[in-house]
């Protein structure tokens, strides 16, 4: 492993200081530990006005040479990937670095054979099977831009994303396993593609052995295509700032946007943060439970571990199948040393029988991680005590799709750890808190909006096809700063605690949705005139979705209507965005200018209607009483 790992608190302080005093020298030294076909000319060029951010300009590389080829000499026979299926009775599969290299090259050759070229956008809609990892890396191998779409999204959500990226090909599977259920993935793809003229090829991986509809001239089976294909595929030489991937994520307005990451900076940042935060050692078995359809899966299941030459475990299943002990059974089965999951999973397991945890030894664990949403103190302590046996540092890692990698987090065993606190910024990261006017708050024991004042190599470069949207979303709220959309506190010791979103984004089980996006889906239902969606505290999901809905006429059966509205949301977005509560109302609290006062709705949804603040400016103050009375 290249020597970029901080070992002591003093080394952290030194690295942090240098990263501020001489960011270019700091990152340049780290970047030098990678394999470049040609070294960069300029380490950093940037302004946050446009924004224009370029790291390692002029550098030439391929990220897969760094993930795979460079390990072959020293780690060829080391395990790169362990795949554990949904059903514990099915056999797991292991791939050494040499085998993974071959699989990726073969997949890359299949893509080439099917007409995929450098710069093409490839949509990947696949379950958590090894081929998802091969496919993603195969795109990077040939310089195609991957856009992985989580396989729980609906056909409509998929077609929106495909059309935005103008993808020419879709990589998918016949179906998928999820706990006791089997889901027909290919059917969703077929439906999506009815509205996607840019797609002319579909490659289908067999997972369930189902007979699926194959469109003549468009659809091919992977197992047919791979016959006789070479296990060697030279890597395409890429520029540091060439696009590596697009990943769609929700913001406070409009449709999800395609966050763009580029080859050089993302690579450097993914490995630096992976190696440091988890303090990974050469023989560790590392398990990140995230799906590759989310940024956590991109950076910390796939790229970060492979760049580091580590062994990464990929799990097809869910924490509750066949029983609530499944995670811990897998930890014991493979001797997992580092375990990274989301608070929502911890909270759902806390609800089970404690024996589901205590029946496993969990002796192999050394470091635990949390990501995706604030981890409440109760869940933090349960995780630390029952899983980590109070022996393992628990790192609460704060970051975003847009940041590419972890930004604020305890470095396991090295920097301070405090329940529910992400704690200190990593070297190279310069967070600040600002008030609503954008003035920096410099003291401690304060709360404010979390911004970054200097770029890091993993920062978002643009939103695909619409650079202005990137500027407006992240760089225009506070001049000269990247605005995260999160509120945070800083305690007396300077440790950060992330409170949650301050914009109209809700975080359900660690998944982001814009309230506008869900409202838009609900409004597609024929009975609905208007809707307003807010988040509310939910025991397991972190936030639940509460929808206030105005209908054309008073429904005879509210339960039927609710079911129909849920169906509409499932169709437009997917099951993951199902409203938890739907209240039918005759009006919404609006100001005279027509703006919905969400503050009031949030209070109602939280069940706290004692003090709704000033409602005198509302167009129709009476509607508030009705909403309060009908609260669910
Ligand atoms: O609100 C923060 C929350 O998740 C948002 C980013 O979501 P996404 O882009 O989907 O990425 C999730 C995985 C990196 C942030 O704006 N968030 C993420 N991690 C934490 C968190 N909130 C509190 N604590 C965290 N550790």
Summarize the structure.
The chain folds into 2 domains: 9-318 and 397-488, 3-Layer(aba) Sandwich (Rossmann fold), CATH 3.40.50.12780; 509-629, ANL, C-terminal domain (GMP Synthetase, Chain A, domain 3, 2-Layer Sandwich).
Low-pLDDT parts are none
The first-level CATH class of the largest domain is given as Alpha Beta
- The CATH superfamily of the largest domain appears as ANL, N-terminal domain
- Main sheet: which strands, in order across? 12-11-8-6-7-14-15-24
Largest sheet: 8 strands, mixed
CATH topology of the largest domain: Rossmann fold
Gap between N and C termini: 54 Å
Please state the average pLDDT score: 96
Helix content: 25-40%
Number of strands: 31
- Can you tell me the CATH architecture of the largest domain? 3-Layer(aba) Sandwich
Q: List the domain count as a whole number.
A: 2
The total of helices stands at 20
Bound molecules: adenosine-5'-monophosphate-propyl ester
- The Rg value, from CA coordinates, equals 24 Å
Name the structural class. Answer: alpha/beta
Overall spatial form = globular
Estimate the strand proportion: 15-25%
